[in-house]
Design brief:
Layout: H1 3-22, H2 30-57, H3 72-102, H4 108-124
Helix pairs in contact: 1-2, 1-4, 2-3, 2-4, 3-4
Length: about 150
């Protein structure tokens, strides 16, 4: 693993720990709000998308029949990853908050701490392997004539 890959891999957990450290700032501090909002919006999702990246790369985007944009696949894949990052982060926040509310232990600090720990755990997970491409020739069921 190169140093650049290590930095990219550890960036989401680092923003989580930074957001936890920002809780020591005064309540109305813009820096505190920015650090927490940045982590909650992108941190957990970025760690999860990194784990799934090889599986995403195995099946690139298919463009329209008319190819006007030569970089369609690259732009489409980038947009897909950005949206997945955002929506997975929001989903993780909602799930953790719901569990803490259901157990009567909800607090903003606990939500942030739980998500930071989960993001750190996801950063240490190895990337998923891509599954082999699907067969293109149809198989006939057993016992039937071709």
């Amino acid at each position: 693993m190169t140093p650049q890959e290590l930095v990219v891999r550890m960036l989401p957990p680092f923003t989580g720990w930074l957001a936890l450290a920002a809780l020591a700032l005064p309540g109305g501090s813009p820096l505190r709000g920015a650090a927490v909002a940045l982590f909650l919006a992108a941190g957990p999702g970025a760690a999860l998308v990194r784990v799934c990246a090889p599986a995403f790369a195995a099946r690139p985007a298919e463009g329209p029949v008319e190819r006007r944009d030569p970089d369609f696949a690259r732009h489409s894949d980038l947009l897909e990853r950005l949206m997945l990052t955002l929506f997975l982060s929001i989903s993780a926040v909602m799930l953790v908050a719901t569990v803490l509310i259901a157990t009567h232990t909800f607090s903003a600090q606990r939500v942030l701490l739980t998500l930071t720990l989960l993001t750190t755990l996801a950063a240490f997970c190895p990337p998923l392997r891509a599954s082999p491409p699907a067969r293109t020739t149809p198989r006939t069921p057993k016992g039937s004539a071709p």
